[in-house]
Amino acid sequence: MSVVFDRLAVELGEWFIDRLSSATTGEIAVAEVDEVRQEARRNTRARFEQWAKNPSCDANTLSAVHNVRLDAAAREIGLSPSFGQSPFAIARGNRFEAGLFVEQAARLRQALETKGCLLPSSSGFLDLRLKMNGGQNVSTVDEALRLTQEWLQRIACDPGTAESLVAAPMIRIPKGVILPEALLIIDAVTVTLGDAMRPRVTVGEIKVFPDRGGHTEPHQIATARAQAGVYRHALELAVLELGLAGDIDIATDGFLVFTWPGSNSPSVRAGEDLTYQAIRAERGFQRLEEVAHSLVRTDDFAADNPTLIQRVLDADTNYSEACLSFCDLAPRCHKHALDADDAIVLGMEAKRLLGETPVARALELLNGAVPVDDREYDLQRQLGLS
Questions:
Q1: Cα 249 from chain centre
Q2: What is the 3-state secondary structure (H, E, C) of 42-105?
Q3: Do you find a cis peptide bond into 371, omega within 30 degrees of 0?
Q4: Are strands 199-210 and 266-273 parallel, antiparallel or unpaired?
Q5: Contact at 8 Å (CB) between 256 and 272?
Q6: Cβ atoms 302, 62 nearer than 8 A
Q7: What is the pTM of this model?
Q8: Distant-in-sequence, close-in-space partners of 79: CB < 8 Å, separation ≥ 6
Q9: Maximum alpha-carbon separation in the chain
Q10: How distant, in Å, are the alpha carbons of 51, 66, 176, 189, 343 from that of 312?
Q11: Where are the beta strands (DSSP E) in the chain?
């Protein structure tokens, strides 16, 4: 949920910062304002989350790697951006996360213990959240990176000192997958001790949407799992880079934290298998690195760079229903899919069933048309017509 604060700082805060800069004549005040802006831009978590929602889309990948805002690209072709978070959503996300971490994260700990993610006798809370993200002690990105590294080294050398719950550890991915640097903040991790007192770190992802059991939105759960898989793989890379892979186990599963319907109380989903999501993240990181290396930039990484906006607009796209929840270019891609009679406009389940069969041809088969090949015979069978 720290992504809420990230977007607020970058998308809304820059307007205030620019106004404050123009009204301030003191060099010290201006320097402080610039420092806040730079800290917000260095936090690339929001860009990773955007990419994880549709990693197979080249336009989305370019946008994430080079910090090209999708709303700016949409305006360039005459579309009205519509996916900015409302102030109400930001406020609720703020309250939910803040409530989880007050009083040494008492509410979150209780929920994790109830689901078996932590032992009832667990103790110790380490808060590594930036002050701009609701933390109390960590002021800068560099400080968060240093403290996270020191924490990993400490628990590797002396597992008995491990805090059982850590908020917002920040890691730098030792690859050039995001420009100018790849930094990630993990919502929360638990630390348990396994055989021979070896620390086991489990990644957690926090989302504000309600957990409705078997009726929770499938794409919301899938997105949360995908993002948790990204953070699990990134943590593995960071531990390997520090030479601690033999001393710290990164759990193959993770936990998701949603809300109880109609409340801000946490609902924990434990034991979420992240194996597939971590493998997909590894492949995705390779693609991100290729894109980062293919387009070297020397400017200030401004999100409204017109040359890069055009590159995003010219890139290949891979439309899916997930795009409707985050991408301001989705209306353009949806229209292209409609024009191509692509089954994706009916959702992923329909796309899996129909594959490359156009919707019009599927309707003909549904109405009794004679199949022309084995694929159409099989489709008719799946439709219950043969």
A1: 22
A2: HCCHHHHHHHHHCCCCHHHHHHHHHCCCHHHHHHHCCCCCCCCCCHHHHHHHHHHHHHHHHHHH
A3: no
A4: unpaired
A5: yes
A6: no
A7: 0.72
A8: 328, 329, 331, 332
A9: 79
A10: 13, 10, 19, 34, 24
A11: 125-127, 165-167, 170-172, 183-185, 188-193, 199-210, 249-259, 266-273
**pLDDT per residue over 324-363, tens digit each?**
888 999 999 999 999 999 999 988 888 988 989 999 999 9
Return the axis-axis angle of helices 58-66 and 275-294, rounded to nearest 10°. Answer: 70
What the block records as the tokens of 198 is 């070896």
Residue type, 2: S
Distance CA 127, CA 137 (A): 8
Tokens representing residue 209 in the block: 């949407």
Give SS3 for 205. strand
Q: Which residue has the tokens 């997930």?
A: 322
Q: Which residues contact 191 (CB under 8 A, 6 or more apart)?
A: 155, 162, 163, 164, 165, 166, 199, 200, 201, 202
Q: Rounded to an integer, what distance in angstroms lies between the CA atom of residue 77 and that of residue 302?
A: 19
Task: Kindly report, residue by residue over 254-301, the tens digit of the pLDDT.
Answer: 999 999 888 888 999 999 999 999 998 888 888 777 777 776 555 445
Structure tokens at 314: 């010219």
